[in-house]
Amino acid sequence: MTGESNSLGPYNYQEVEINGSFQYEFKTDSGLTYNCWFVDGSGHFKDYPQIRDSIVTFGFGCKPYTPKGYFHKHDPKTKLTVLSILRQSLENYPERVVLVMYQNTDNRKRNRKIIFDTWYKDFCEDHNFVGKFRLTIPSPDGSDIMCITMFVPETYSKRETLKEALLDFKDELISKGLPPSTTTISFC
Predict the structure, then answer these.
(1) Cα(111)–Cα(83) distance, rounded to whole angstroms?
(2) Number of neighbouring beta carbons within 10 Å of residue 162
(3) Domain, as residue range, for 115
(4) Does any domain span residue 41?
């Protein structure tokens, strides 16, 4: 499937098979190639059989991988394209929850957090059919941060069960010493 294209819209993207799985691929005006993918996320909710099969994780990356310290020029069409692929998935699969995780293990953790928080905030404002769960998990020494955002279509029939699972998950993290202020469960 191909995304819409114009100078102000997202890049054209296509579904391609890579190593037996399907991904979305697009090329920027500067020649960078990005891949976006969805994979089974049921392993994150093993204790919740009623919802685990409807959860996928979403990721994307640039090929080739850029070395530490190298920054790509800002390209607003990259954001538009990634969010277009995410929107298409939520529209096509109204009973699927999308989990996005990113880890901040390099010198760009603050910038990455700001960028993705802005992307997903804009996404929620533009698409009122989505609920959102957000969690930030610092490592014990504070050097590493895992940020998790979960997008839940309003059409998802197991929203209350998912909320209960997330509250249990939050309580479990708090019982292990995570400050409660780093976790929010909200709907955009």
Answers:
(1) 18
(2) 22
(3) 14-186
(4) yes
Domain count, the chain: 1
Q: In whole angstroms, how far apart are CA 81 and each of 8, 105, 129, 137?
A: 11, 25, 19, 28
pTM of the model: 0.78
Going along 67-107, which residue ranges are E strands? 97-104
CA separation for the pair 39, 42 (Å, rounded) = 9
pLDDT tens, 38-92? Answer: 999 998 888 888 899 999 999 888 876 555 545 566 788 999 999 999 989 988 9
* Three-class DSSP category at 135: strand
Q: What does each C-alpha distance from 28 to 78, 84, 94, 133 come to in angstroms?
A: 7, 15, 29, 30
Written as six digits, the tokens of 80 are: 């538009």
Evaluate whether residue 6 is within a structural domain: no
Concatenated DSSP letters for 119-132?
A: HHHHHHHH-TTEEE
Which tokens is 172 given? Answer: 């479990």
User: Taking Cα atoms as reference points, which of 128, 127, 163, 166 lies closest to residue 44?
Assistant: 166
Q: What's the one-letter identity of residue 66?
A: T
**Does any domain span residue 9?**
no
With respect to residue 130, please indicate whether it lies within any of the assigned structural domains. Answer: yes
